[in-house]
Amino acid sequence: MSARGLRLGPPPAGGADPQERSARRSGHPRVIGYYVHHHGAGHLHRAAALAAAVDDEVAGFSSLDAPAGWTGPWTVLPLDTDASPPEDASANGRLHWVPLGSVGLADRMATIAQWIARERPSCFVIDVSVEVALLCRLLGVPVVVVAQPGARTDPAHTLVYDIAAAVIAPWPPSVSPLRTAAELGERLHTVGAISRTPVRPPGIPRRDGSIVILQGRGGRGPSSVDRVSAKLREAGIGDPVPATGSEREIADLLRSAQVVIAHCGQNAIAEIAAARTPAVLIAEDRPHGEQSAMARAIDASDMPATVFPVDAGLDHDVDLGLDLDDLARTIERARGLDGDLWSGWVDGEAAARAAAVIQRVAASSASGRHGR
User: Fold this and answer.
1) ∠280-150-200 over CA atoms, to 5°?
2) What residues have CB less than 8 Å from 33, skipping those under 6 apart?
3) Counting C-beta atoms within 10 Å of the first and last residue's C-beta, which end of the chain has fewer, N or C?
4) Other residues' Cβ atoms within 10 Å of the Cβ of residue 245
5) Distance CA 143, CA 141 (A)
6) 218 and 166, same structural domain?
7) Residue 240, Cβ neighbours under 10 Å: how many?
8) Each residue of 217-248: pLDDT tens digit?
């Protein structure tokens, strides 16, 4: 993929099209619901970036606390993991998580349903839950689903993509890490990767030889990135520094590094791309092969990243007996890449493009409702 390939056009001026402006002139205030999955941090970071780009009030729902800077209402939902052992959690294979007898499941769904009945939202953004999307649609609310990479051909994913008014794919249009059985057609909007941090301004110096380790929190136990970092320290290869601290501190570390070593999560790749820093990426084991799919997409593009291990098939965690010479060569290859090529992955406008999609769906819903 060429870095010039991310030519999606600017978002509409003010984020509004004529139908949306007409709906606003009618005097009916709009509110948009937003469900944030609690596994990992990427969904939360993306929600913060998208909500900040949407003109309407956005009400968040999650089992996580609200992210810093969230300005709208936020409801902390009870967890739905109280049923032990879970019974028929997939409803005979049609859904993902609806365990029989779960009080937490009933309470969280009731909370969302009561809010919908009271506030009458114009649409609901789902990132991600098949069950919450289905609930909203059954209550007459159009849903905008945030797509996830990987093999999403199971009945539950097919259902959620089928019922969506729009599907936002947070990656460039020239890669296709999503595999689905649903016919998305014009409902699929590839907006580019969404980063919570701004694109790196020019002139920031790189620290010679610096290697930054960007770790996620979506896995269980020691990760492949942890193992690689430990091996680097044992072998005295570079001086790997973990990307910790505040959002600003992490961004500064990424921007000044010569190489970043990270997993293949969407949020991690987006932040590295915004920092315009070459990377060594490792596909962690995740459901539906989502990180393997992202690794393949990156590997087939001209983005400034190398996938390690190069010949491991991208389907498993890095072997504990990894080849240090191979790792050192991979890092050196990454050092020689042009970080500015990341502009083909993150151009700083993806959140605005996604917000425009959300607001078009909301405007259509509000216009139809108030027109009856």
Assistant:
1) 40
2) 58, 59, 61, 112, 115, 116, 119, 121, 123, 124, 125, 136, 141
3) C
4) 11
5) 6
6) no
7) 19
8) 655 556 788 888 888 887 888 789 999 999 99
Q: What are the pLDDT digits (tens) for 168-224?
A: 999 999 899 999 999 999 999 999 999 999 999 988 899 888 999 998 765 555 678
In contact, 80 and 99? CB cutoff 8 Å: yes
- Residue 353 token pair: 């493009």
Query: Do 147 and 276 belong together in one domain?
Result: no
In the chain, count H helices and then E strands. Answer: 11, 14
For the cut 60, the answer to whether the pLDDT of residue 7 exceeds it is no
Cβ–Cβ < 8 Å for 243, 213: yes
Tell me, yes or no, whether 76 and 101 share the same domain. Answer: yes
Please answer whether residues 35 and 126 qualify as being in contact, where contact means their C-beta atoms are separated by less than 8 angstroms.
yes
| Token representation of residue 328 | 């050192």
Residue 96 parent element (H or E):
none
Question: What are the tokens at 192?
Answer: 């580019």
Same-domain pairing of 16 and 163 = yes
What's the distance, CA 102 to chain centroid? 28
Number of domains in the chain: 2
**Separation CA 255–CA 273 (nearest Å):** 10
Nearest by Cα to 34 from 370, 368, 355: 355
Domain that holds residue 218: 211-344
Kindly give the pairing relationship between strand 241-242 and strand 259-263: unpaired
User: Does the residue 199 lie in any domain?
Assistant: no
Percentage of the chain lying above the pLDDT 70 cut: 85
CATH number at residue 356: 3.40.50.2000
To which residue do tokens 């320290």 refer?
Answer: 233
Tokens of 29: 């205030």
Is 201 part of a structural domain of the chain?
Answer: no
Q: Report how far residue 96's alpha carbon sits from residue 156's, in angstroms, rounded to the nearest whole number.
A: 6
Whether the predicted pLDDT of 259 surpasses 90: yes
In a domain, 62, yes or no: yes
Q: Which residue has the tokens 């509000």?
A: 366
